[in-house]
Amino acid sequence: MNLDEFVPESNLTRDETLDAIEVAVARTLTHALQTSVTVRVEDQLQILVYPHGSGAPTVLTFGDIERKLRRHVQHQVDLELQLRKTLNEAEHLKELRGYTTPGEITRVGDDGSLIVTLEIADHYRRLILSGICPTRFQPKHERERYIPGTVKEFHITSVVPVMVNHRSTKVQVQLNRISKELPRLLLQERSRIPGIKCMKRIPGAFSTIVTPSRISKDVINSVGKELKEHLYVSIQETHR
Q1: Rg of the chain over CA atoms, in angstroms?
Q2: Total-model pTM
Q3: How open is the CA angle 192-196-201, to the nearest 5 degrees?
Q4: How far apart are CA 195 and CA 168, in angstroms?
Q5: Which residue of 8, 64, 97, 108 is surrounded by the most CB atoms within 10 Å?
Q6: Digit-coded pLDDT (tens) for 55-64
Q7: Which positions ≥6 away from 109 have C-beta within 8 Å?
Protein backbone atom coordinates (compact mmCIF):
# COMPACT_ATOMS: atom_id res chain seq x y z
CA MET A 1 0.00 0.00 0.00
CA ASN A 2 1.64 3.21 -1.21
CA LEU A 3 0.53 5.75 1.38
CA ASP A 4 1.80 8.84 -0.42
CA GLU A 5 -0.34 8.24 -3.48
CA PHE A 6 -3.53 8.76 -1.45
CA VAL A 7 -2.75 12.34 -0.36
CA PRO A 8 -3.04 14.15 -3.72
CA GLU A 9 -5.84 11.85 -4.93
CA SER A 10 -8.09 12.39 -1.92
CA ASN A 11 -7.96 16.22 -1.90
CA LEU A 12 -7.57 15.99 1.87
CA THR A 13 -4.65 17.20 3.94
CA ARG A 14 -1.92 14.67 4.64
CA ASP A 15 -3.00 14.35 8.30
CA GLU A 16 -6.65 13.84 7.30
CA THR A 17 -5.64 11.23 4.75
CA LEU A 18 -3.42 9.26 7.12
CA ASP A 19 -6.07 9.33 9.86
CA ALA A 20 -8.65 7.98 7.41
CA ILE A 21 -6.28 5.15 6.41
CA GLU A 22 -5.63 4.23 10.06
CA VAL A 23 -9.35 4.16 10.88
CA ALA A 24 -10.35 2.16 7.80
CA VAL A 25 -7.57 -0.44 8.13
CA ALA A 26 -8.08 -0.95 11.88
CA ARG A 27 -11.87 -1.23 11.55
CA THR A 28 -11.69 -3.69 8.64
CA LEU A 29 -9.02 -5.95 10.14
CA THR A 30 -10.66 -5.96 13.59
CA HIS A 31 -13.88 -7.20 11.98
CA ALA A 32 -12.14 -9.71 9.69
CA LEU A 33 -9.75 -11.18 12.30
CA GLN A 34 -12.27 -11.03 15.17
CA THR A 35 -9.68 -9.53 17.51
CA SER A 36 -8.37 -6.11 18.50
CA VAL A 37 -6.17 -4.41 15.91
CA THR A 38 -4.40 -1.06 16.14
CA VAL A 39 -2.92 0.76 13.16
CA ARG A 40 -0.48 3.62 12.96
CA VAL A 41 0.78 5.33 9.85
CA GLU A 42 4.16 7.00 9.83
CA ASP A 43 6.52 6.26 6.96
CA GLN A 44 4.90 2.85 6.66
CA LEU A 45 1.75 1.10 7.80
CA GLN A 46 2.25 -0.38 11.28
CA ILE A 47 -0.31 -3.00 12.30
CA LEU A 48 -0.50 -4.60 15.74
CA VAL A 49 -2.79 -7.61 16.29
CA TYR A 50 -3.69 -8.31 19.92
CA PRO A 51 -4.44 -11.92 20.95
CA HIS A 52 -7.55 -12.85 22.87
CA GLY A 53 -6.85 -12.66 26.58
CA SER A 54 -3.30 -11.79 27.60
CA GLY A 55 -0.13 -11.75 25.58
CA ALA A 56 2.01 -9.45 23.50
CA PRO A 57 0.65 -8.12 20.21
CA THR A 58 1.84 -9.52 16.90
CA VAL A 59 3.30 -7.21 14.27
CA LEU A 60 1.56 -7.63 10.92
CA THR A 61 2.71 -6.14 7.62
CA PHE A 62 0.32 -5.35 4.80
CA GLY A 63 2.06 -8.02 2.71
CA ASP A 64 1.29 -10.65 5.37
CA ILE A 65 -2.43 -10.26 4.78
CA GLU A 66 -3.94 -12.73 2.33
CA ARG A 67 -4.74 -11.24 -1.07
CA LYS A 68 -8.55 -11.26 -0.89
CA LEU A 69 -8.58 -9.51 2.51
CA ARG A 70 -5.92 -7.09 1.29
CA ARG A 71 -8.16 -6.03 -1.62
CA HIS A 72 -11.06 -5.61 0.82
CA VAL A 73 -8.94 -3.41 3.09
CA GLN A 74 -7.87 -1.31 0.10
CA HIS A 75 -11.52 -0.89 -0.92
CA GLN A 76 -12.50 0.19 2.61
CA VAL A 77 -9.68 2.74 2.64
CA ASP A 78 -10.97 4.16 -0.66
CA LEU A 79 -14.50 4.41 0.76
CA GLU A 80 -13.30 6.15 3.94
CA LEU A 81 -11.30 8.68 1.95
CA GLN A 82 -14.23 9.35 -0.35
CA LEU A 83 -16.57 9.76 2.64
CA ARG A 84 -14.30 12.32 4.27
CA LYS A 85 -13.87 14.20 1.01
CA THR A 86 -17.66 14.28 0.58
CA LEU A 87 -18.19 15.50 4.15
CA ASN A 88 -15.69 18.30 3.58
CA GLU A 89 -17.36 19.27 0.31
CA ALA A 90 -20.84 19.21 1.90
CA GLU A 91 -19.66 21.45 4.73
CA HIS A 92 -18.19 23.89 2.21
CA LEU A 93 -21.35 23.90 0.06
CA LYS A 94 -23.76 24.52 2.95
CA GLU A 95 -23.58 28.20 2.03
CA LEU A 96 -25.75 27.37 -1.00
CA ARG A 97 -28.76 26.74 1.25
CA GLY A 98 -31.45 29.37 0.90
CA TYR A 99 -30.52 30.38 -2.64
CA THR A 100 -32.21 29.65 -5.95
CA THR A 101 -30.60 27.95 -8.90
CA PRO A 102 -31.63 26.83 -12.37
CA GLY A 103 -31.32 23.09 -12.90
CA GLU A 104 -31.79 20.71 -15.80
CA ILE A 105 -34.12 17.80 -15.13
CA THR A 106 -32.15 14.74 -16.20
CA ARG A 107 -34.46 12.01 -14.95
CA VAL A 108 -37.81 11.43 -13.26
CA GLY A 109 -37.61 8.65 -10.68
CA ASP A 110 -40.14 5.86 -10.30
CA ASP A 111 -41.48 7.67 -7.22
CA GLY A 112 -41.84 10.94 -9.14
CA SER A 113 -38.72 12.57 -7.67
CA LEU A 114 -36.78 14.80 -10.05
CA ILE A 115 -33.08 14.16 -10.53
CA VAL A 116 -31.59 17.51 -11.47
CA THR A 117 -28.16 18.56 -12.75
CA LEU A 118 -26.98 21.86 -11.29
CA GLU A 119 -24.10 23.97 -12.57
CA ILE A 120 -23.03 26.41 -9.87
CA ALA A 121 -20.28 29.03 -9.82
CA ASP A 122 -18.27 28.69 -6.61
CA HIS A 123 -15.16 30.77 -5.92
CA TYR A 124 -13.77 30.89 -9.49
CA ARG A 125 -14.76 27.32 -10.34
CA ARG A 126 -17.79 25.68 -11.90
CA LEU A 127 -19.35 22.85 -9.91
CA ILE A 128 -21.59 20.21 -11.44
CA LEU A 129 -23.79 18.86 -8.66
CA SER A 130 -26.65 16.40 -8.42
CA GLY A 131 -29.92 17.67 -6.97
CA ILE A 132 -33.17 15.96 -6.07
CA CYS A 133 -36.64 17.44 -5.83
CA PRO A 134 -39.00 14.97 -4.06
CA THR A 135 -42.63 14.81 -5.17
CA ARG A 136 -43.82 16.53 -1.98
CA PHE A 137 -41.78 19.61 -2.96
CA GLN A 138 -43.29 19.80 -6.44
CA PRO A 139 -46.42 21.88 -7.23
CA LYS A 140 -49.39 19.60 -7.87
CA HIS A 141 -50.07 21.13 -11.29
CA GLU A 142 -46.53 20.22 -12.43
CA ARG A 143 -46.32 16.65 -11.16
CA GLU A 144 -46.10 13.94 -13.83
CA ARG A 145 -45.60 16.65 -16.47
CA TYR A 146 -41.86 17.17 -16.17
CA ILE A 147 -39.81 16.45 -19.28
CA PRO A 148 -36.12 15.47 -19.06
CA GLY A 149 -33.95 18.20 -20.56
CA THR A 150 -36.21 20.98 -19.24
CA VAL A 151 -34.57 23.71 -17.13
CA LYS A 152 -36.46 24.92 -14.05
CA GLU A 153 -35.72 27.24 -11.15
CA PHE A 154 -35.37 25.60 -7.72
CA HIS A 155 -34.97 26.72 -4.11
CA ILE A 156 -32.04 24.97 -2.40
CA THR A 157 -33.17 23.70 1.01
CA SER A 158 -30.29 21.44 2.09
CA VAL A 159 -26.86 20.15 1.11
CA VAL A 160 -26.00 16.75 2.60
CA PRO A 161 -23.68 13.77 2.00
CA VAL A 162 -25.52 10.61 0.98
CA MET A 163 -24.60 6.97 0.44
CA VAL A 164 -25.03 5.59 -3.09
CA ASN A 165 -25.75 1.86 -3.42
CA HIS A 166 -23.89 1.22 -0.12
CA ARG A 167 -20.63 1.60 -2.06
CA SER A 168 -19.84 5.30 -2.37
CA THR A 169 -20.84 8.75 -1.14
CA LYS A 170 -21.65 12.01 -2.86
CA VAL A 171 -22.96 15.47 -2.08
CA GLN A 172 -26.69 15.75 -2.73
CA VAL A 173 -28.59 19.03 -2.99
CA GLN A 174 -32.26 18.93 -1.98
CA LEU A 175 -34.49 21.19 -4.07
CA ASN A 176 -37.94 22.70 -3.67
CA ARG A 177 -40.47 24.17 -6.13
CA ILE A 178 -43.29 24.95 -3.65
CA SER A 179 -41.38 27.12 -1.17
CA LYS A 180 -42.76 30.57 -0.39
CA GLU A 181 -39.18 31.77 -0.70
CA LEU A 182 -38.93 30.83 -4.38
CA PRO A 183 -41.02 33.69 -5.88
CA ARG A 184 -39.50 36.16 -3.42
CA LEU A 185 -35.93 35.20 -4.26
CA LEU A 186 -36.53 35.10 -8.01
CA LEU A 187 -38.08 38.57 -7.95
CA GLN A 188 -35.25 39.86 -5.77
CA GLU A 189 -32.52 38.40 -7.99
CA ARG A 190 -34.06 39.63 -11.24
CA SER A 191 -35.07 43.10 -10.04
CA ARG A 192 -32.04 43.73 -7.78
CA ILE A 193 -34.48 45.13 -5.21
CA PRO A 194 -33.81 43.94 -1.62
CA GLY A 195 -36.46 43.53 1.05
CA ILE A 196 -39.13 41.81 -1.06
CA LYS A 197 -41.54 39.62 0.93
CA CYS A 198 -43.91 36.83 -0.04
CA MET A 199 -46.89 37.00 2.29
CA LYS A 200 -48.74 33.97 0.94
CA ARG A 201 -48.29 31.41 -1.80
CA ILE A 202 -50.50 28.71 -3.25
CA PRO A 203 -48.18 27.02 -5.77
CA GLY A 204 -49.64 27.06 -9.27
CA ALA A 205 -52.35 29.55 -8.29
CA PHE A 206 -50.93 32.78 -6.89
CA SER A 207 -48.36 34.49 -4.67
CA THR A 208 -48.96 37.66 -2.72
CA ILE A 209 -45.84 39.82 -2.85
CA VAL A 210 -44.95 43.03 -0.98
CA THR A 211 -42.05 45.10 -2.27
CA PRO A 212 -40.42 48.30 -0.96
CA SER A 213 -40.30 49.80 -4.48
CA ARG A 214 -41.74 49.24 -7.92
CA ILE A 215 -40.78 46.08 -9.81
CA SER A 216 -40.89 46.18 -13.60
CA LYS A 217 -43.70 44.32 -15.28
CA ASP A 218 -41.22 42.29 -17.35
CA VAL A 219 -39.60 40.91 -14.19
CA ILE A 220 -42.95 40.07 -12.60
CA ASN A 221 -44.16 38.36 -15.77
CA SER A 222 -40.92 36.36 -16.14
CA VAL A 223 -41.23 34.96 -12.60
CA GLY A 224 -44.95 34.31 -13.01
CA LYS A 225 -44.26 32.43 -16.24
CA GLU A 226 -41.51 30.37 -14.59
CA LEU A 227 -43.80 29.35 -11.70
CA LYS A 228 -47.00 29.23 -13.79
CA GLU A 229 -48.90 31.30 -11.25
CA HIS A 230 -50.16 34.86 -10.86
CA LEU A 231 -48.13 37.29 -8.77
CA TYR A 232 -50.05 39.93 -6.86
CA VAL A 233 -47.41 42.58 -6.23
CA SER A 234 -48.00 45.64 -4.08
CA ILE A 235 -45.67 48.36 -2.82
CA GLN A 236 -45.25 48.39 0.94
CA GLU A 237 -46.57 51.52 2.56
CA THR A 238 -44.08 53.44 4.67
CA HIS A 239 -45.37 54.96 7.91
CA ARG A 240 -44.02 58.30 8.96
Answers
A1: 26
A2: 0.69
A3: 125
A4: 42
A5: 108
A6: 788 888 888 8
A7: 115
